[in-house]
Structure formats: C-alpha cells, structure tokens
Amino acid sequence: MAAATTVDGSALAGRALAAAGARHMFGVVGIPVTSLASRAAAAGVRFLAFRNEQSAGYAAAAYGFLTGTPGLLLTVSGPGCVHGLAGLSHATANAWPLLMVSGSCDQADAGRGDFQELDQIAATKPFAKLAVKATTIADIPRLVFQALNAAVSGRPGGCYLDIPSDVLHQTIPESEAADLIAAAAAAAADSAASNPSPPKQNSSIEKAADLLRRAQRPLVVIGKGAAYARAEEAIRKLVDTTGIPFLPTPMGKGVVPDSHPLSATAARSLAIGQCDVALVVGARLNWLLHFGEPPKWSKDVKFILVDVCEEEIELRKPHVGIVGDAKKVIELINREIKDDPFCLGRSHPWVEAITKKAKDNVLKMEAQLAKDVVPFNFLTPLRIIRDAILAEGSPAPIVVSEGANTMDVGRAVLVQNEPRTRLDAGTWGTMGVGLGYCIAAAVAEPERLVVAVEGDSGYGFSAMEVETLVRYQLPVVVIVFNNNGVYGGDRRSPDEITGPHKDDPAPTSFVPAAGYHKMMEAFGGKGYLVETPEELKSALSESFRARKPAVINCIIDPYAGAESGRMQHKN
Asked: Which ranges carry the Thiamine pyrophosphate enzyme TPP-binding domain (predicted)?
C-alpha cells in the first residue's frame, strides 16, 4: 500500500497564499524560507527575488497601493525581519495593505540564543495592524487568510505572519492540507459577510452636499486614499457637474487629470488659503496639508472629511465627518447633489480667481521651462522628460519620483492624467523607495512603461536592484539626476570646514560625476550618460521604445538645487 502524500509547512503556506488570491511576492530568500518561496511559485504566486529586504518591502507596499490587494513580503529570520520593518512600517504609514511573512527560529530553541533568534512578534507589533505566529502547521492557512483580510479592512496597513522553522518543516497528509485551506477560505468568507456595514450616514451626506452648495469658495482635496479606492470616476463626475476646483496631493494626482481646467495645483496657496469649504477625500490633515490650520488655511474654513477610519475623523474634528470608502461616499454625495443640482460655472468669481492664478503661475513656469540651460538645472531635463512621457499617450507610464529637489521640482513639472501613475516618498517622506516601487509597478501594471526620476542620493539606497530589473527584464527606465551628492554636493559654509577632519568630503558629497550608467551596463542593461538636451532626448526615445531595463545618468549642475529641497526649515 503506497504511503499517503504529505505536505510540509512551506508548501502549505504557498498554497494558502495562492488560494487567498495572492499573485506576486517580493523578498529575499535564505534560512528558513527558501523552500517557501519555491513552493509559493509552484502554487502560482510569482516570486520576485530582491537583493535587499528594504527594497522588497517598499515594492510590496507600492503593490498594495497599485492593486488594492496586499503586497507580500518574504524575509528570513532575525536581521531579515528587521530589514523588512522598513517596508512594513512604510505601508502602515501610507495606509497601504501589506503582509510580511518571516521565518523564525525553532520554537524549542527560543530563548537559548538560536540562529538569528529574535522576538519577531514584539519587533513587528508597533508597525503592524496584526502580528500573529503559527505555532503548528495546522495554523498556517487560517492565519494567512486572517492576516490578508486584516491588511485591507478598515484603514489598510501592514500585517505580520511569523512561521517558525520547525513549523515550516512539519508535515500533514495532502487531504488534511486541502481541508485546512478550504476551511480557512470559508471562515474568511463568513467573516467578510458578517462584518458590520458602515452606519447609514444620510444626514452627513446631506450636510456635505448642502455645505458645498452654499459655499462661496469650495475646494475638493484629493488624496492618495481616493486613488487607492478607485474613486476617480465619482470624483471626476463631482468636479464636472459642480464646477468646484480641485487640489490633489502628490499621489492623488491623476485621479482627475492634471490637465483639467479646474485643477488648482498651480494655485495651491490661493486655493487652500481662501477656500471656505474643503471636501477632503482620502487625505489626512497632516503635515502635507499643513494640519488644516492657519496661516496656510483660513481660520474659518469648514472641512468635510471623508476617511475610511473613524479615529481619523475623531482626531481632526471636521465640520462634517463621513466614515467610509471614498468611492462609495462620493457616489452618495453625487446622488444627493443630483436631486438639487448646482454648478459654479467658469465665470464664478472663485473659479475665475483660481483659473487666473493657475494660468499666471503656469505661464511663469513655462517661461522657465522653455529655456535650455546647460549645464543642466532641474527644469530643463524635467521638461524633456515630461514631454517624452506625455508622448507615450495611454496607458500612461507610471512615474516613480524620489529625491529632495528632484521630487519637489518634478511634482510641479511632471503631469499625471491617469490615476495611480505617480509613486513618491509618501506620508513619511521615505528615501530608498525608488527601485522597489519600479519593480512593483512593472509587475502590477505590465502594460505600462515605468519611468523613475531619481535624485542620486535617493537612487543610491536601492541602486543594486538594477540587477533585479535586468534579471526579470522589466520595462523600467531609471533617470538619475546626478549632482554629486545630497542636495548638490558640498554646501558647507567656511566656519563648518574646520577641525581635524576638515579635509574629508562634505557629509553631503558623493564621488563627482559618478558613472551610475556603468553599473547598469555591468549587469547587461542599457546605460546612457547625458549632459545636453539632445543627448537626453535621444536616450529617452531609444529606451522608451525598447521597454528594457535602462539607466540614464543625467549630469546636473551641483549648484542648481536647494538644501533639503523645499524643506529647509526642517533642516
């Protein structure tokens, strides 16, 4: 009689992830999770192997934003788990769903100084919505489904699943494995069905519509939470039918096209300083929006805050707070407005003021952009990159933007006309996200080109992942703005260049004119060195057409930027 087929913990975890709908996993393999990666791939979950867990974690976080499903991060035990905390915490800070899965030491040897021993539940708890450990193989399917569900419920965020080495090596019969996965899937479905529906908020919807209707200077603020919620159709309808100007946060750009005539991006100070009612959708009133307080905002502004998290509403105490999914809430507001419609019209004083200010500022910017400045400042190459990206049409490339000056100036120059086509440092202002984001974007949206516009400092955090780009032949073009260091090399005043180490390079300096393109070439990708508009245009044209891994090393005048980008007051 043939022995019954058995399944080990690694195979069970891989199958459970696939059964729960996972399609991609990012990570670094090693003891004790190498087999888990292979087994997950065999079950249908594509594994993208990285060179560093931090980059893999940032990829998983961005994947959660782009797809609306949890990005998966796989790490080894101990130091691998610690490296993974960067992605886990970044996902939670940005309200993006992520599940980090780590191996850990044998349970029998815990507390005895085992290989890479760490209390990983304690380490991850401050950054995770849920942190759980499988203590036997039978726990794995249930905890996989539970953690994936927790990552997307309420305010999305990071979750953690710990699978000790001994559990990964335990075995159960094939039939029991199938039953455990089926039971876990059924329990997850039952839990989702029994989740209480958000309370009916008819009065809040009516108040919101009435406030907008009576406002003299209304404004719609679009956050990345609106992009995550796929609220673009509903918000565009709201803007088009009411004529209310809108202001996107950096990753809210494209929910309504930047080219829309009611965009207040180029009149931001006027819009937030003078609006009397602000409908804030999927954005927190944090540092990015000046906490919703004077002097940037009027002291009399009335906020209508739409957020998936009740605690956020309670913290900010808006005039009207609506807890719910951004798409559903805006659809309800649209329905309420439809019963008593209004439209400001292009000749409304508020709309005229916003459009005039925006037009004036755009003309000033375009006058600067029209100049070909060599050696490059930031504006000249950004204009050339903007035009090349726009020429790609639809589906628009996904732009990854990272750096101080590079990201700040790029936010004003680069145009997003489609949702979820801009990824940047996010709520935390995290540097090092660039190449991880690129890889996530390339696998989540395979029909789109991915274009990263990176400062040389930001690029350096994850530059080794260019090998990953080449290994998987991903359609990613990385443009490095090379200005010899952080902010632009040595910015010290004479009184700072003293003492026994005065001959050392400045803390902000890198090797001048570093050959970043040669690093890509070393792995078999395409590298370009550009110093003139013609060279940059040629490199962009060729690399965009090829849709293969490429690095364009764009030499920038080291004195072109400002220290800390636009955050000098923080430094």
From this structure: 403-554
